[in-house]
Amino acid sequence: MTTLLTGANGLVGSMIDADLRISGRDQVDLRDWYSTERYFRSHSPDTVIHTAARVGGLGANMNNMADFYYDNILINSNVLEASRKFGVKRVVSFLSTCIFPDDVEYPLTEDKLHQGEPHFSNFGYAYAKRMLEVHSRALKTQHGLDYTCVIPTNIYGPHDNFNLKDSHVLPALIHKCYLAKRDNTDLVVWGSGKPLREFIFSEDVGKLTNLICQYYTGNDPLILSTSEEISIRQAAYTVAEAMGFEGKVVFDYSKPDGQFRKPTSNLRLRDFVPEFEFTPFNEGVKKTVDWFVSNYDTCRK
Ligand code: GDP
């Protein structure tokens, strides 16, 4: 069996084993049908794990709405159509909980994906991603293909983007805590520390993806989440402990809290892998902190 992974250099991609790895557009431009088709024709994968996407923070999304829509629609359409054309048996594509409707009843469940407009700040990206689910379902309906989508919550782990300006909260806190320890300053956390998030360790996402490729039949999407809510305050103290930071943790109330919580239900996932043991949050954070410290000079920051 030959597995192809797209987006191999990303946070999730780096945790997934695959025979063939596409890590960037210099290798294969997935926005281009002929480039994508040529690759599939000559490598004939049986399974495709599709994580490649054009991604960006809030500012990038808002300023390039049409580019985010167009590039992601092209990438996703080409990967699924090439998979169909060259007889790929399983495709597992990555979505994200940030593409869910803005006005939605919590907890998020898989069936709510299309029940309302996404947040205005990323609707280009969100609709393009939602079409992955629609296209996979259409391929099931017309051709009986078991192509499916997974929807992880906030993934964290080694190889993340630790840039202080546009990273997510956990890599930002790790980078800030590193600097605070080095420079003997406070660790400054944005907002009140009260908002809640569900974090999932990238290694767990990798393991779950392998299980899904091997054993999950069907086409219904799966939310990948621990369904355990962690406050930003708890996250900050967990990072401080893992870093051995003994200075002060302070909360900057002038910075935005963002959404208070966006819980998900992992019942469908639990039904599929009832015995799966998630990495405890403090262990995952410790591994990520150790990786960041060892790779400080070369990591994305
Ligand atoms: P979200 O999950 O899409 O809302 O995005 P983030 O991962 O960027 O942030 C989530 C929460 O972390 C918000 O409540 C922020 O106020 C809080 N937060 C605390 N410190 C930081 C920080 O240094 N960077 C970021 N990005 N968020 C922070």
Instruction: Give me the strand/helix succession.
Output: EEHEHHEHEEHEEEHEEHEHH
Number of strands: 12
Termini gap? 36 Å
Unreliable segments of 5+ consecutive residues: none
| Major β-sheet annotation | 6 strands, parallel
Q: What's the assembly state of these chains?
A: single chain
How helical, in percent, are the residues?
25-40%
User: Helical element count?
Assistant: 9
Category by helix and strand content: alpha/beta
The fraction of residues in strands falls at 5-15%
Instruction: From the alpha carbons, calculate the radius of gyration and give it in angstroms.
Output: 19 Å
Global shape: globular
**Average residue-wise pLDDT:** 95
Name the bound molecules: guanosine-5'-diphosphate
Strand arrangement across the biggest beta sheet: 2-1-3-4-5-10
Walkthrough of the structure:
This protein is α/β, with parallel strands linked by helices and 301 residues long. The protein has helices at 33-43, 58-63, 65-85, 123-143, 169-183, 202-215, 232-243, 267-272, 281-294; strands at 3-6, 20-22, 47-50, 90-94, 146-152, 154-156, 187-190, 196-197, 199-201, 222-224, 230-231, 249-252. Helix 4 (123-143) links the parallel strand 4 and strand 5. The structure holds guanosine-5'-diphosphate.
